[in-house]
Amino acid sequence: MDSKFDGVIIVSGGLDSTTLLYHLVKQNLKITALSFDYGQRHSRELVCACWQCDSLKVPHKIIDLGNIKQLLQGSSLTSPEIVTPEGHYAQENMKLTVVPNRNMIMLSLAIACAISLKAPKVWYGAHAGDHAIYPDCRPAFVKAMQRTADLCDWNPVDIEAPFLGIDKAGIVSIGLELGVRYDQTWTCYSGREKACGKCGSCSERLEAFEKNHLKDPLEYEH
Description:
This protein has a single domain, classed as HUPs (Rossmann fold). 35% of the residues lie in helices and 10% in strands. The chain has 6 helices and 5 strands; from the N terminus they run βαβαβαβαβαα. It is globular, with a radius of gyration of 17 Å. It starts with 6 loop residues before the first strand and ends in an 11-residue tail after the last helix. The relative contact order is 0.18.
């Protein structure tokens, strides 16, 4: 395929996908970025995604999935009546943060975008720390989606998740070498003005910076 793009990256505005964005830009790859507004409580992450893509001069679109929010209920990220759970990611209650089929939906749209651009790759920031809680971040899911991508069109698109075997502390380590502006990323699930410091996402992020002997540049409530 002849394309002006090497691929499409899904950028949430969080720590993992932003680090991946810098990683690809560092390789001088020609990429375009997609973010998705699916009615998430922590929509501030989309502001960060815009800031990062603009800073790195990466073409970027936010895709409005608001109309399907009614189909994605039962998660604390999309159902306001469900309280955001606090604690570590490994705890059972963190499954309340799973948005039904989120990554399959996003990857399907990113694959469609790549096919339309005749771009050969799609990247997303799934990592090892997600495996226990998020089924759509497991290696088996990535393999299954790759098989689906191989069958859905005549133009092949490779799905790549370079951080699949790396935990968040390792991703922060990579990002520090790349000069990632982590003060312009958003991880907290609470949807408040400051990061709560108590939800699973905050806990994992704080732990990742601690393992790198650094203070997280975000401002926290606690």
